[in-house]
Design a protein that fits this description.
Largest sheet: 5 strands, mixed
Shape: globular
Number of helices: 9
CATH topology of the largest domain: Spore Coat Polysaccharide Biosynthesis Protein SpsA, Chain A
Number of domains: 2
CATH class of the largest domain: Alpha Beta
Strand content: 15-25%
CATH architecture of the largest domain: Alpha-Beta Complex
Structural class: alpha/beta
Length: 305
């Protein structure tokens, strides 16, 4: 006889590469979570060629966690895709939760995420507020309220690195972009959207592409301010303007395939989602805008993040 209220499961996909100490902290935080009744969570760690003792740590300290080994060149997007395919085939989860190995969460995070998903419509995606690890906490991603494709301008709910204390502590808001870590999506919807685009966006951009593809197919995408992911801003997105890396590192980021600023990646993203006749304008504005942010806007921020 089928149960009237079968337990639902969430598979937490965590790609990792040589970050054993960060991964241990996240898994300890996940183990301490008290999940909403009627739900269970299953961590799946995708170890993409780590050589820092990650596999040994998992075997000794988290023997119940599922592990999938990559080839060392999967990067984040393929790790998520391969992890999702493995989970759907072997673990049969109702939901997938996309995470980063360097993310941190507070007690009650999973329950808040589940509660947020219940408030939203069916077949939607729920993202999390991204907050800097260091105090005073600042919000690095609060969602995108609208995109003006004629001017290539995003309307943010709050400016980047706004103090967390100035942000509402709850609320569910539609967003036209996602920050991959802390993204909850049903397994069925992820399959319907044909997973992430790993060919065009191997490391960065696949989350935003997923959000826009979901909207185009009539599925809502929301960000929950009740759900906070604390990230080590100084350890992520090498080449980003706010990191204030050395000038050669910043310049190289425009030509490195797995970089956040990779120009061909931007071209493909604009081609898929923008107004094609405006492509030259988009690329010029991206390069000039990113350079301005590096040399002027975020000049002193490296001392604050």
């Amino acid at each position: 006889m089928q149960r009237e209220n079968p337990e639902k499961s969430i598979c937490i996909l965590i790609p990792t590469f040589n970050r054993v100490s960060y991964l241990r902290i996240l898994l300890e935080q996940l183990r301490a979570q008290v999940c909403t009744p009627g739900f269970k969570f299953i961590p799946l760690i995708i170890v993409d060629g780590s050589a820092d003792g990650t596999l040994e740590m998992l075997s000794a300290e988290f023997p119940s966690a599922s592990v999938l080994r990559g080839t060392g060149d999967w990067w984040w997007t393929k790790c998520i895709n391969e992890g999702a395919k493995y989970a759907i085939q072997n673990l049969c989860p109702d939901y997938l939760l996309l995470m980063n190995d360097d993310s941190q969460i507070q007690p009650g995070y999973l329950s808040a995420l589940i509660d947020s998903s219940k408030l939203a419509q069916n077949d939607c995606i729920i993202g999390s507020l991204s907050v800097t690890e260091k105090t005073p906490h600042k919000v690095s991603f609060s969602g995108v309220k609208a995109i003006n494709w004629f001017l290539l301008k995003k309307k943010l709910y709050f400016k980047s690195f706004e103090l967390l204390e100035n942000i509402p502590s709850t609320g569910l808001f539609p967003t036209y972009a996602l920050n991959g870590r802390g993204t909850l999506i049903s397994s069925s919807l992820f399959q319907k959207l044909t997973f992430l685009n790993e060919r065009s966006f191997p490391q960065y951009g696949s989350d935003d592409d997923l959000a826009l593809r979901a909207w185009k197919k009539g599925h809502g995408v929301y960000i929950s301010y009740s759900c906070k992911i604390y990230d080590r801003t100084h350890d992520t997105s090498k080449g980003s303007a706010f990191r204030q890396d050395a000038i050669p590192v910043f310049v190289k980021s425009f030509f490195t395939r797995n970089s956040v600023n990779y120009i061909p990646k931007q071209f493909v993203f604009f081609y898929y989602h923008g107004i094609k006749i405006l492509m030259p304008f988009y690329l010029m504005k991206f390069i000039l805008g990113t350079s301005y942010a590096y040399f002027f806007k975020y000049k002193k921020m490296k001392y604050e993040l």
